[in-house]
Write a structure and sequence with these properties.
Keywords: Signal. The protein contains 3 helices and 4 strands, in the order ααββαββ. By secondary structure, it is an alpha+beta fold. α1 packs across α2 and α1 runs parallel beside α3. The longest helix has 17 residues. The protein is globular.
Length: 104
């Protein structure tokens, strides 16, 4: 279900994405926030070049979502210059990520 929601939102936001990796990070966060499934608002950390999303799910589900989100971002023209990563957290992980993938 989450993947379907992300597909719809990424498809809607794709037209406004530029080649700028920071803008792509904020657009990805906006798309993730728009799904309504995040436990807290998505964050963009420019210093560590990381998009941070918190969802109430297992680490295996988070890994699947992570890789699926990366593929959908590519398909929709998001450009991260191979320097950014997506980290997924659980509200119960004490600030530790439960999944991480590169946003190529």
């Amino acid at each position: 279900m989450i993947k379907k929601i992300v597909i719809c939102v990424l498809g809607l936001a794709a037209g406004s994405v530029s080649a700028d990796s920071v803008e792509s990070a904020f657009n990805l966060c906006y798309a993730l926030d728009s799904t309504g499934v995040l436990s807290q608002e998505c964050e963009v950390d420019g210093g560590s070049q990381t998009v941070k999303a918190t969802l109430d799910m297992s680490s295996s589900e988070a890994r699947k979502l992570c890789s699926g989100t990366v593929e959908l971002a590519k398909q929709n023209g998001y450009d991260f210059n191979g320097e950014w990563k997506l980290k997924i957290y659980s509200p119960y992980s004490n600030g530790n990520s439960i999944a991480m993938c590169r946003l190529d």
